[in-house]
Amino acid sequence: MRGTVLAAVAVTAALTLAGCAKDSGAPSGGGTAAGSPCKLAPKPPAAAAGTSGSKTPEKADGSALKVGLAFDIGGRGDASFNDSAAAGVDKAITDLGVKKENVKELSAGPNESEDAKQTRLRQLASDGVNPIIAVGFAYADALKAVAPQFPNTKFAIVDASVEGAPNVTPLVFAEEQGSFLAGVIAAYKTQKCNVAFVGGVETPLIQKFEAGYYQGAKAAAPDIKLDKKYLTPAGDFTGFQDPSKGNAAANGLIDRGADVLYHAAGASGKGVFSAAKAKGVMAIGVDSDQYNQKTVEQERDVIISSMLKRVDVAVFDYLLAVAKNDLAALPKVFDLKVDGVGYSTSGGKIDSELQAVLEGYKAQIIAGQIKVSDKPTS
């Protein structure tokens, strides 16, 4: 697994630089970070009113739905990806009238077999659960086998699509767009001009987070140093549920100079936060607003922001579409334009000046003026 400093990420010509000195001070809550801060690229134009992807809330009657959640490893309580999916179902209980007793949740185990995944999905479908949401790309092969066996059951899968299965709806995201904004945040908050990424498992999906983060950091601070560490290689999904590995990886990156760490590592991110707190540096969470997560509240002071991958929005919108019998209304990709990804401001570390910068970059991405890559350059 690599831990070397990466080469610079190419950015759009619209962001060509004429660096100006950074004006932010030491990271609030970080304490000991020191060194020469980055020189920042010119700030983007202010976002025009109405460029956000806000939408009018819709209503439907979901009282007849029997909802199944097949969680990824970690399940409800992972302070990340699965919790966000659960929040979407919880919102459907509140807003659509889905009955709590009609929600069935089952969780995966680390490195389990495909048979185990298929058994879980078959159990839900055989029990009359409809629709069923598979949380995570690891269910793709299992759904390819199971979905045709239950053609009248509606399935959805987060982070993947299943070819040849018309009853499976993909819920996919522009993680690279939200991660771009996380990179901008890191560039504005670092005091060493050195930031890093911790990935749970080295897969194309997690590399989307890395790619966007690096591109955003380089757009905001062209001379910034970038580092990374993946916890496990592709195929070994324990990287999403091993806080000790997250802690060790974060400590290594901090020792090499990074003072802002962004993780896309599921429950392993708890170890990243604890390392950041112990070493007096800062961190950026992922998926949910991790500043408000009970399982990491002891480390919340080091969390600048979280890249919001709105699995909750996608799950709720999917259940709304099922209740309305209108799956065609769902977006093809949950991106910045539809608030499918974004950033949090909890904790007060994103001031109005930085938020204006973030909204400016966000508007340029939505308008297509900035093209965010979903693949690392090296």
Automatic annotation (TrEMBL):
Residues 70-374 form the ABC transporter substrate-binding protein PnrA-like domain. Transmembrane segments: none annotated. It is a lipid-anchor. Residues 25-60 are annotated as: Disordered. PROSITE patterns: PROKAR_LIPOPROTEIN (PS51257). It comes from the Bacteria. It is found in: Cell membrane. Residues 1-21 form the signal peptide. Keywords: Cell membrane, Lipoprotein, Membrane, Signal. Residues 46-55 have a biased composition (Low complexity). Belongs to the BMP lipoprotein family. This is BMP family protein. It comes from Allokutzneria oryzae.
